[in-house]
């Protein structure tokens, strides 16, 4: 299986939205309130792509995952209740989702590895991210990949667990 991590194009929107709808439903089935408020949505994805921050993970040309990957662009992170490991430039990722048909293959970890490489390619040595307190899968990935818990950040009045990984 050949994986590729690339910038998303507007031609990818429908496949990306299908994957995100599956993830939204999965979060609902798990009893989480994360992504149950109309976010993310199709417009958010289109804006990601237009701003060149939407990325897809493909397997043999089929889109199997999505993430928005930004550099130094998360204003809410300035208001952390806690302390980041670094104050340097950082890559942040949001809206990570893997296709329902491809769960359990380690693709989320593969995508995180690609995001780390993207950071290094841009001479950035910090990755910051957040997730809901009950997103067991993502919390487990953070732990396995060596992310440090740094505190809480808030989005739409909802607390998120904030993590950082130093790549130095």
TrEMBL record:
Residues 3-168 form the N-acetyltransferase domain. Pfam families: Acetyltransf_1. This is GNAT family N-acetyltransferase.
């Amino acid at each position: 299986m050949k994986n590729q991590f690339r910038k998303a194009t507007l031609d990818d929107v429908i496949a990306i939205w299908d994957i995100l709808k599956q993830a939204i439903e999965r979060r609902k089935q798990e009893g989480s309130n994360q992504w149950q408020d109309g976010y993310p949505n199709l417009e958010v994805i289109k804006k990601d792509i237009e701003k060149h921050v939407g990325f897809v993970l493909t397997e043999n040309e089929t889109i199997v995952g999505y993430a928005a990957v930004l550099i130094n662009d998360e204003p809410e992170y300035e208001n952390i209740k806690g302390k980041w490991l670094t104050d340097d430039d950082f890559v942040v990722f949001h809206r990570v989702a893997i296709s329902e048909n491809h769960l359990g293959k380690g693709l989320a970890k593969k995508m995180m590895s690609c995001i780390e490489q993207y950071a290094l390619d841009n001479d950035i040595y910090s990755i910051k991210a957040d997730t809901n307190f009950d997103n067991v899968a993502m919390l487990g990935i953070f732990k396995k990949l060596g992310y440090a818990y740094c505190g809480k950040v808030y989005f739409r009045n909802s607390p998120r667990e904030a993590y950082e990984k130093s790549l130095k």
